């Protein structure tokens, strides 16, 4: 049986996963719609700022082109999303759900804001 989240974001247990197909993330359509309604842009005041030195450490030295810096940030964000998705499979249930949501959220924002294909 495939591994994945065992509980919905509301805390209800999910029905057993089928052998194939998409993994369930919601206990009901109502819960899925509630989450979609409440999912919105995060306030920018919650976003931590990175110093120029930290940015050089993240992106590597010699990145003077702003477009190249943005592209490297997109690649890093997609890597972090994949790391959260991998962690969700191995983490205990309480953390697996959070890791799964982080992976989905990061990937969704990158796709929406930068029109990145899957």
What does this structure look like?
The protein has 118 residues and is an all-alpha fold. It folds into 2 domains: 1-43, no CATH class; 51-114, no CATH class. It has 4 helices and no strands.
Estimated radius of gyration: 17 Å
| Regions with little confidence, pLDDT below 50 for 5+ residues | none
Query: Count of DSSP helices?
Result: 4
What's the domain count? 2
Assign the structural class, choosing from mainly alpha, mainly beta, alpha/beta, alpha+beta, or little secondary structure: mainly alpha
End-to-end distance, in Å?
A: 25 Å
Mean pLDDT: 77
Number of strands: 0
Overall, the morphology is elongated
- SSE pattern, N- to C-terminal: HHHH
Fraction of helical residues: 55-70%
Largest sheet: none
DSSP strand content: under 5%
Topology:
Elements: H1 29-38, H2 52-59, H3 66-90, H4 93-114
Helix pairs in contact: 3-4
